[in-house]
Structure formats: C-alpha cells, structure tokens
Amino acid sequence: MTQPNLDPAVDYPLSDNRRDLLFTPTGRSIDDITMEAVMSGEVKATDLRITPDTLRLQAQIAEKDGRKQLGANLHRAAEMTAISDERVLEIYNALRPNASTKAELEVIAEELESQYDASFLAALVREAADVYERRDILATSE
Amino acid sequence: MTAEAIRQPGGDVRHSARTELLEDRPVNLDGFVEEWPEVGMVAMDSAFDPQPSVRVENGVIVEMDGVARADFDFIDQFIADKALDVETTEQSMALPADEIARMLIDPRVTRKEVIAVTGGLTPAKLLAVAKNLNIVEIMMGMQKMRARRTPANQAHCTSARDNPVQVACEAAEAAIRGFAEVETTLGVVRYAPLVAMALQIGSQVNPGGPLTQCALEEATELDLGMRGITGYAETISVYGTEPVFVDGDDTPWSKAFLAAAYASRGIKMRFTSGTGSEVQMGNAQGKSMLYLEIRCILIAKGAGVQGLQNGSISCIGVPGAVPAGIRAVAAENLIASAVDLECASGNDQSFSHSAMRRTARLMPQMMPGTDFVCSGYSAVPNYDNMFAGSNLDSDDFDDFNTIQRDLQIDGGLRHVKESDILAVRTRAAKALQAVFRYLDLPPITDAEVDAAVYANGSRELIPRDVLEDLKGAQQVMDRNVTGLDLVKALESTGFTDMAENLLVILRQRVSGDLLQTSAIMTPSLVVLSAVNDANDYAGPGTGYRPSGARWEEMKRLRHVTSASNPELEVE
Predict the structure, then answer these.
(1) Which domain holds residue A123?
(2) ipTM passes above 0.90
(3) What is the DSSP letter of B81?
(4) Candidate from B2-6, B153-157, B498-502 with smallest mean pLDDT
(5) Active-site annotation holds for B524
(6) Candidates B76, B293, B348, B533; catalytic one
(7) Is residue A35 domain-shared with residue A67, that is, in the same domain?
(8) In the 8-state DSSP scheme, what is residue A6?
(9) What pTM did the predictor assign?
(10) Best mutation target, B75, B531, B533, B535, to test chain A (most A CBs within 10 A)
C-alpha cells in the first residue's frame, strides 16, 4: 500500500493535523470515537487500538525526524498489531534467557512469517536464536 | 589513602566541640566508600574500562572497544548491530574525545550536528567524551541536548496502605501542581487494578491531565496498559552486563520485543537503567558504573524505544557513595539525551540524610531542565512512597517552587492555592466513589472521602477492608474492566468532563502521536514531543526560558508580599 508522504513539521501531531488519515482497526474514522458512540456500545475497547497503517505513518515521521531505530521499532509494532495479547506475552516469555531451544525459536519465527506476515519480527527472533546459541542461553532440549 | 581503624564512640580521645557538632550532622549518616575498581565500585574512571575502537568490514562491525565480533557478549552484539550507525561510525570514532565533548557544549554546534556524531560512537568512546566534562559542562550539554524543548516533571502517587482514595486525591493534586506524568506502585501487588484505576481517574480532574503508569512486573504492567487502565510504561529494566541481564530474566532481544509490543498497542514506553545496578546485583565485571550504564543507554537506542529513565534510579546509594558519583549520574542523563533519547532523569529515590546534599544532587537536572526532571518526585510524604522514597517529596513542594522562582528555572511545577487543591482532591475522591459504586466494587464512604481530601498521608485515612478490596481488584481483572469502562462509568455518574478527558487520552492510542520521542500531553490536550517541540537551544537568549504566563505563574508562592500594599500577600 502506498503511504501518504508526510512532513513532520506540518503533519505532526496527526491527531490535530491529519485526522483524515486516522482510523480504528474496525475501519471507523477517529472522529467517530465520540462519547455518544462509546455510551451506545458502538465503539468498543477493540476500536481504541492503533492500526498497522498508523504505526507505519508514525514510523515515517520518526525516520524523517532522524530516528532510524525508533522507526524500525514502529515497523515491528505494525506487524505485531495482528498478534493477540496472549500470544505476544507467550512469545515474549519464549525469548527470555534459557526459556527456548533453538528449534522452538525457529518455529516461532516461521509462525511470525507465515501467520502474521511479520518478517521484521521473525528476523528479530532468528537473530536472538543465533546469539543465544553462541552465548549459551538456550534451553536444553528435553 | 591509609586505612584507619573505625573509631568507636565513647573512647577516651578528647574531641573538640566542633567535631562533635559536625559528627551529628545528617550528612554523616550517609554511606561513603573508597573506590574499588576491581568490583566496579568506581564512578567513571577505571583502569579496567576498555579503550575505544571500532572496525567495520562489509557493512558489519567486526570489532568494538577492543573486542572481536566472535567474542562479543550479547550486549556488544546488540549495540554493534542495532545502536551504532555503521555508515558513520569509523568517521565519528576518528574524532578526538575532547573535540566531541566541546561540540556538546558549544552553542554554535547544533543538536542535530552532535547527534550525527554520537550515533556512531561506541560505549567506551562515549565514556571518554564524558570524562572530559565537568559538572557545569554536563549541565550545559543537557541544556542543548534534551530532546523536548519544554522541560517537564513526573510524580510518584502511592500509598503505604495502597489506599485507592488517597491515590486518586494525590493524582489530582499532582496534576494541578503541573506534573506531566504520574506513576504508582504497590505494597500489596494484588491491589494493582484498583490503585491503577484510582490513579487514572484522579488524573482526569483537570483537562490534559498527566499520563499514568503502574510499575509492576513486565507482563502485568503490559496487561494493565493493554486494557487502557494505565497510559504509559517505564519499568522495563535493562542492564550493562550479560550475567546481570540474565539474572533479570531478560535479554536485549526480549526487551526489544517488548518495546514493539507496547508500541503495537499504541502505548508510550521507556526503558529503565542506571549506574550502580550491576554492582548492586553483584556482577559489574570490574567495569566503571558509567561505562556499564552507557551500554544500557545504547541498548535502549538499539531497541528503538523512544526513551530511557536513568540517573541511577533505585541504586543511587551506590554512585552516591563513591567520588564523582553524582557527576557520573548527571553524565548518564546527558548521554541518553545526546543519543537522542527521551530522558526521565532520576532524582526518584531517597538519597541522602542531608537536605543540602539532596538539593545539590537535583541541580544538574533541574538547572538545565530535562524531559522529566524527576522520575519521579514523590507527591506523597516519604513514609507513603512505595518506591522506597524519593529525593524530593510532598514536604518539599514549597522549597521546590521557591528554587524555580529564585533561579528562574523550570522544574515543571507551580504553587497552587489550598482551596483549588482541596477542590480537585474532593472531585477525584468523589469520582472514584461513584465509579466504584457503578462497577459494584467495595464502597467508599463519605467519611473516607473527607479524610482523604484533607489528609497529608495515609496515617490520617480511614482504613479500608483490605480483603474486600482485594476481591474487588480480582473482579476488575476477571470482568476484564478496561479504560473504556472507566469512561462509561464516569459519564454515567455525572463526571462528564472527566469522562471526556479520559476518552481523549484513550483516543491518542489510535493516533500513535504519543509514541514519538519525549511526548507529553499539554493542558490544552495537545501532544508535545521532540517532533513538534524540538529543543532549539543555540546559546544565550535562545531555547526554552520561562517567560510570559508560565513565568508569572512561577512567581507565585505561598507567601509573597504585595507591592501595592505591604500589609497584604499576593493571592
């Protein structure tokens, strides 16, 4: 998807200057998150989440403002929006030292790629697996 | 230095009256130790710290600070691959350390130009740069390198009894006093849902209330954040040696994953680290405290998290005990800012028995201004502070405001007249009472509200039924109560302005504006960050200086004699 070309000096904060670009995961405009809609139950907690598109817009702003690493984190975050809270916490726990074997981390990396199209996150997990092996902080297989 | 046996009191040595007086001064209750570099008990100048070096081959860093890539520990590798700019590192590293130190303080070198260089510096090189700077130069550097132009402050709002009514009142008072963030934590962890809710609700009494946080174990903290009960997170700890990191049950990769997790839910987050933590956890590998802290700073940078809470934090007693320790603490704040991270700069734990020493420890952050001068300032009495006290507490509000006025420096706070404070405390307690009733949580009586509004601390409160509260806290989790439920509860019980404020904060998650570096919300509900409020300091007469309405507000104190009528005080 082509992204609008943003100018951090003009467009940020998006919540003030580019509301036209801001949507909820259910496709509502940010302007539809009104008290009335909340009270009627039309807007739910799941609407108050950021979308991958918005995260990529913020990544663009970070990068244009000279923050490469922050941009990369926001790209990983964009991929992570598709993963459930529960699974996010499970993968986090699997990345703790001595928690997973190399094969287990590889399975997670494959899941990230195939189920969530999350190539940046998969790369992060594979990188961890390599370093953990070299530094001897993988779980010993049962 | 020659060792001298520790003298026992009551010996038959005759002392002067002056010695006896000095012996009784509070500063002599503080702990001081000789440097011991072999175990890392040295602030920033150790013969065991590595010499700076870098070597790049085929776009990969193959040597850093005298260590070959094959021998990198996981921290070295994370920094080399993720934090350092491989394109510029050899060029930046070729600059002499004293020249880079001069760039940091020279107003004619812009912040951007400095960052173009620091982005390529290894930990040992950043240490060499810091070693060139005395404390005044560190402050000058901070004045220019702080990411956000406007300084701010953060408060601790806790209760020794984990009393939610008190925490709601303290959050409302902290907000009206000017804090941009408020943080809580618990004595009894199971109380967390109720106290976090109280903090969130109390913060909404004024428009543009502070962002809220509940410091807990990583997974629980993320859970409360995902529910929208808290607004940001900061206790994501990183460490400067591999064994200590592993003892903390994490790695730079697990923390980087967590950084993405918070951002993926639209939640602002910063890491935490600080000088002395590795010594305190018994594995400093014989390196200086500042060298190890610089590794932490670069882990935060490499993970792509927008900021860092540092400044020794809960380990302040360790650098505080050694020579130049407080200079090293100021240097770690500067380096975080100099690599373009938000810096929440400590001053957040009981540090000294000496009021003079506590103030001196604060000045290197308060004078130049940082993104958050304290992280945080205890908005409650010392005995109620569940973060083990802070360098400043509620007893110090008037002193702090006076220092701001004396020196015309902005520590983010203001004097507020008592009637206004009582009004917001009352409203916070009543809103919490209404929300508890609406959500069928243990009742809050009018007498409890009254006691909390007028209390200084938890000693003046009416004790709650803790067992019932803990059942209620469990229900909040089981029923999956979210931030949106708090909006509905406030709206349904007639606290419509507070409901609107909270909805604005939750709506920010959809926009992601708070994910940018050093973001806060202003009282007019606008996001202010390093993107739209970039520090533009360029020497005398430039950059942020308290002026206009803000300076007029800072001139107010509890007692100021009127110029037109010396019999009266200015209101």
Answers:
(1) 82-142
(2) yes
(3) I
(4) B2-6
(5) no
(6) B348
(7) yes
(8) -
(9) 0.97
(10) B531
